[in-house]
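Incident review: delayed structure delivery

Summary: a single-chain prediction request sat in the queue longer than the usual turnaround. Root cause was a stuck worker, restarted by the on-call engineer. No data loss occurred. The affected request and its eventual output are reproduced below so the record is complete for anyone auditing the incident later.

Affected input:
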Amino acid sequence: MEAMTHSDSVVTPLPSAQAYAQRKGQERLLSIASGKGGVGKTWLSITLAHCLAQRGQRILLFDGDLGLANIDVQLGLNPDMDLVGALSTGGSLKEAATAVPETGFDVLVGRSGASSLAGLSKDALVSLTQDLTALAFDYDRVLLDLGAGIDSVVRHMAGTARTCLVVATDEPTSLTDAYAFMKLSWRENPEADLRVVINMAENRREGERTYATLKKACASFLLREPPLAGVIRRDKAIKDAIRHQSPTLTRYPSCSAAADVEALAAEL
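Output delivered after worker restart:
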């Protein structure tokens, strides 16, 4: 048999530089989702960003609740540039990033009621997530605060990140919607790294019990068991901080909920 020459050998092509950069950028993305609204997802995103920044990380918080953005409201911000402005003028996302005073992290806010964001075409959505992935190289981590629900836009953005935190409470509708979100996410990407955060728990034991209910459903019907990322206890300080448009870690740095998010940050 004639020996195979170098030119005849099968060579597996290396991934392109663009694909490699895309993968490396995605490793810095962390999406925060929920099947249902009203579970404290945006508050958790803000507080987690603050915790990670306090740990010395360069953090960007992206308001991915396209059409119902409210991070700027919770933080009392009125930035000169937001996501709508950057998209409509052709500006860069980096130019639209705003530093949050006395927290150490940046935000890229949306605009509440902006149908131009909620109705992004598939191509525009892909372009946006690619820009976010490229921007991630300027930060240690980019947190994506996604909209509630299980629609294709939310799932696409959640799938862009290496890890997705799925926030739920003990309400039955919250658990069923969180289950539905994970079911569709794993159907589209069986390797998706989904982790559960139980919010507004009466105590840690009750939070773990709520998680066990969700895990059992996933194990029984999806043959998967998402790990528990953390339990956040119900805390009156949160409502007061939101009312005053102030980060919880700034207004109540020693409250129980702040300690719980700090534990979550340490695990991440």
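Verification: Residues 204-221 form the longest helix (18 residues).
Action items: add queue-age alerting; document worker restart procedure.
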